[in-house]
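Q: I'm writing up a methods section and want to include an example of the input and output format. Could you take the sequence below and give the corresponding predicted structure tokens, formatted cleanly so I can copy it straight into the document?
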Amino acid sequence: MRFESRLFLALVPFFLVVTLAYGWWSGWEPVGVVALLLLAGLVGMIGMYLALVARRIDPRPEDDPQGEIAQGAGEQGVFSPGSWWPIACAGAAAVVFLGLAVGWWLVGVGFVLGLLALVGWVFEFSRGQHAH
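A: Here is the clean output for your methods example:
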């Protein structure tokens, strides 16, 4: 994770320079300047998070300059199998957006469907074949 944290932290000064250049060139147009400052801050937060995580975990094979491909062999983690719940969440979002055009009552129906789909997606692995 050390490389990733350095990559993100190296982008912060770049975005600050871009912010200054954009501000000077645009006459300090407020929306763009604030957006670029927020971008620099968000990239910095990701870089700091990755740096803190890199301190807590053992070095990975990717962090070793002399690392071999074989060092990364084996189990890489636990990944969820396929899920149909994201389609239900997308359908609920479609109902919400349709409600903006048709009527506000449909927005409420879409929010309820979205909440049900989100709960189903979150608790999908608490029951059935893939329960933990």
